[in-house]
Design brief:
- One of its GO terms (biological process) is proteolysis.
- This is Cytosolic non-specific dipeptidase.
- GO terms for molecular function: metal ion binding; metallodipeptidase activity.
- InterPro entries: ArgE/DapE_CS, CNDP/DUG1, Cyt/Met_Dipeptidase, Peptidase_M20, Peptidase_M20_dimer.
- The chain is α+β, with helices and mostly antiparallel strands.
- It has two domains: 297 residues, Zn peptidases (Aminopeptidase, 3-Layer(aba) Sandwich), CATH 3.40.630; 128 residues, Alpha-Beta Plaits (2-Layer Sandwich), CATH 3.30.70.360.
- Helices cover 34% and strands 22% of the residues.
- It is built from 14 helices and 20 strands.
- The strands form six sheets. The chain has a six-stranded mixed beta sheet with strand order 1-4-8-5-9-19, with helices on both faces.
- It is globular.
- Bound molecules: the ligand NCC(=O)N[C@@H](Cc1c[nH]cn1)C(=O)O and zinc ion (2 copies).
- The site of one zinc ion has 5 residues, from loops.
Length: 478
């Protein structure tokens, strides 16, 4: 590949900004919300739409069936997984790219300034659900491939794709597809590296490359006191209320400083070594900017940088997410909910196994429930995914760092991330190869939140970064 290829690609990308925005607008307009069965057809539509785009860049694609999920006793078909292959030159390195096409729910009434499923450009930012998590990055890969084609240059690597539409809901069916089908079929045989772009820079100016993720153990805690909702003027004072029991249990889980109260939760957390402790000192992270960007009054751990990073990356945290069945709509509704489902999760960390964490939480809740002596019905279920870490001293990381320096003219931080991408460790095990997370978006993109956005700069420079990453990986020894 000629010396001037990358500069030509960068120029091509700059000339095609409008078409990249247009495609992201189309993708965001498909409300592929995976956690709500009523959007299941949109999830399928999103997978099929992406399949067409993958075909347009020349990939061989197939939609793999991953069966059904059970929601409230009903069997619902899971969206298919989009699997693709582009190139099979044995002289070239092969990268397996993973991304997800589903999104978290969003309603304008949640507090969005504009319609969440309509991509809107304002002040150099593209607002819309999925813009940064993860539709922008997935399209970024396709645009980077297209840019090579656009300047008439052969792609310097072979690519394999795994794009799913259930990541935000525990990646149901994906592990089985990878381990029981794709691996035995030889899909990973020629894979040399795995790359995922589904996380963010730590701050807003400095790029990073990510070598660790927390896992997640998500709980549904259901309490039922009656077969229907009740008038509190008629039944209040005469029944043991489900909501009262639920609030009691949820309040037992974590203290006001965020310390998890579930017995044994910290026992198997990997011990902090002196060498690891030193790593946090050099990370470029402005806790005050982080605090201000969310308008929080005060951060935990007195806002100490090292402690904040450690509690995002290497210690478990427990969050209370919501209560299904509670009267959350505006207005003074005087109902006693008949059944409520409390939702909370534990972000789990290296050395903690999901089964072990689930047992600790179940035992703790059962003990508290027995002590409460409530006559109501209680049920707790969980879905979990493991934590992941990788060796950042690998040539793969050096290649990604060279690509990043070329685009952003600065040394990227080697970071870990507090969020979870359950399939990462499965891809690491199935391929036996080095896995790397190459984020496109910035730390203030507000994924999962109101007014999710991606900066135009991150989207466009991210496309160039992906193209440069292909080039750098192509130079690694076979
Ligand atoms: N971008 C990754 C991401 O947001 N992952 C989710 C995964 C999830 C959601 N529910 C269960 N797992 C996350 O919340 O980290
Ligand atoms: Zn994501
Ligand atoms: Zn997400």
């Amino acid at each position: 590949m000629a010396e001037k290829t990358l500069p030509q690609i960068f120029k091509y990308v700059d000339q095609n900004v409008d078409s990249y925005k247009k495609l992201l607008k189309e993708a965001v307009a498909i409300p592929s919300v995976s956690c709500d069965a009523k959007y299941r057809d949109d999830c399928v539509r999103m997978v099929e739409w992406t399949q067409e785009k993958l075909k347009e860049v020349g990939a061989r694609t197939e939609l793999r069936d991953v069966g059904y999920q059970t929601i409230e006793g009903k069997e619902i078909k899971l969206p298919p997984v989009l699997v693709g292959v582009l190139g099979n030159d044995p002289k070239k390195n092969t990268i397996c790219l993973y991304g997800h096409l589903d999104v978290q729910p969003a309603l304008k009434s949640d507090g969005w300034e504009t319609e969440p499923f309509e991509l809107v450009e304002r002040d150099g930012k593209l607002y819309g659900r999925g813009s940064t998590d993860d539709k922008g990055p997935v399209l970024g890969w396709l645009h980077a491939i297209n840019a090579y084609k656009g300047i008439g240059e052969e792609l310097p690597v072979n690519l394999k794709f795994v794009f799913e539409c259930m990541e935000e809901s525990g990646s149901e069916g994906l592990d089985a597809l990878l381990i029981e089908k794709l691996k035995p079929e030889g899909f990973f045989n020629d894979v040399d590296y795995v790359c995922i772009s589904d996380n963010y820079w730590l701050g807003t100016t400095k790029p990073c490359i990510t070598y660790g993720l927390r896992g997640i153990s998500y709980y549904f805690l259901e309490i039922e006191c009656a077969k229907m909702d009740l008038h509190s003027g008629v039944y209040g004072g005469t029944v043991h209320e489900a909501m009262t029991d639920l609030i009691y249990l949820m309040n037992e889980l974590v203290d006001k400083n965020g310390k998890i109260l579930v017995t044994g939760m910290y026992d198997s957390v990997a011990p902090l070594t002196e060498a690891e402790k030193r790593l946090y000192t050099n990370i470029d992270f402005d806790t005050e900017a982080y605090r201000k960007s969310i308008a929080a009054t005060r951060l935990a751990h007195n806002g100490d940088k090292e402690q904040i990073l450690m509690h995002r990356w290497r210690y478990p945290s427990l969050s209370l997410h919501g209560i299904e069945g509670a009267a959350f709509q505006p207005g003074a509704k005087t109902v006693i909910p008949g059944k409520v489902i409390g939702k909370f999760s534990v972000r789990i960390v290296p050395n903690q196994e999901p089964e072990e964490v689930e047992k600790l939480v179940f035992d703790f809740i059962n003990k508290k429930w027995a002590a409460r002596g409530s006559p109501n019905k209680m049920r707790i279920t969980a879905q979990s995914g493991r934590a992941w870490t990788e060796n950042p001293d690998h040539p793969h990381y050096q290649a990604a760092a060279r690509a990043t320096r070329l685009i952003y003219h600065t040394e990227p931080d080697m970071s870990r991330e507090g969020g979870s991408i359950p399939v990462t460790i499965t891809l690491q095990e199935a391929s036996g190869r080095n896995v790397l997370l190459l984020p496109m978006g910035a730390g203030d993109d507000m994924a999962h939140s109101q007014n999710e956005k991606i900066n135009v700069r991150n989207y466009i420079e991210g496309i160039k970064l992906f193209a440069a990453y292909f080039y750098e990986v192509s130079k690694l020894a076979k």
